[in-house]
Write a structure and sequence with these properties.
Distance between the termini: 86 Å
Shape: globular
Mean pLDDT: 78
Oligomer: single chain
Structural class: mainly alpha
Radius of gyration: 28 Å
Largest sheet: 3 strands, antiparallel
């Protein structure tokens, strides 16, 4: 019996290091494989068009979220409560007022979307007010013409400002989806034709505006 116990202990002691060694080997091989996969993934991402990466990574709201209740009509917008917000809200509301108050409701949402797309884009300032006021004070450098046209920015139509204020709040708090312009970063009215409209791909047309997404490849030429 004593010999049997000794033999059992010997077998147990002999097996344990072998098992531990096998687990370490498996772990090492897994780490090597994982590292190889990550390197391959980085290589593939580096080779991809940034616009394609944007499309793949864009978050698409599901049909059962609160964004599904949005209706791009004046009647629906009028039924929403009047709102007021912070400085970022004010900047976005003013931009919609001066840039698009004569546009359709859907067009106003689209213009707000472009501004927020710029906020999310590393090529532009990381705040709404920063995007809207970029270049202001420098001749022909402003991004939004009303910020450097020499005119006083007076809200002469309070009801119109009230409407765009609702849109600004819904866009900022995520109530409204950003799915109208396919990632557009630029827009212009149909009455003009800026030079970049021949370079950047047009993503859509809504109301009086054409929308474009800045192409990293063409922008670097």
């Amino acid at each position: 019996m004593k010999n049997f116990i000794s033999l059992g202990i010997g077998i147990f002691i002999g097996i344990l290091p072998l098992s531990a060694y096998s687990n370490e080997s498996i772990s090492d091989q897994s780490e090597i494989q994982l590292s190889s996969l990550m390197n391959n993934e980085h290589f593939v991402i580096d080779m991809m068009d940034p616009d394609r990466i944007h499309d793949l990574s864009a978050v698409k709201p599901s049909s059962n979220t609160k964004t599904s209740n949005i209706q791009y009509t004046k009647q629906w917008l009028a039924s929403q409560p009047v709102v007021k917000g912070d400085k970022e809200w004010r900047c976005l509301a003013e931009a919609l007022y001066f840039e698009a108050r004569g546009e359709s409701v859907k067009g106003q949402f689209a213009v707000a979307e472009v501004i927020l797309n710029r906020v999310s884009n590393r090529k532009y300032p990381a705040s709404v007010c920063g995007v809207i006021n970029q270049g202001t004070g420098r001749k022909h450098a402003c991004q939004f013409s009303y910020t450097c046209d020499g005119k006083n920015e007076v809200i002469g139509e309070p009801r119109a400002f009230e409407r765009v204020g609702k849109i600004a709040m819904m866009m900022l708090n995520g109530t409204a989806p950003k799915n109208l312009t396919q990632g557009a970063t630029h827009y212009h009215t149909k009455a003009v034709r800026p030079h970049w409209s021949n370079v950047y791909p047009r993503t859509t047309t809504i109301g009086f505006h054409h929308f474009y997404r800045q192409s990293y490849q063409t922008a670097q030429r």
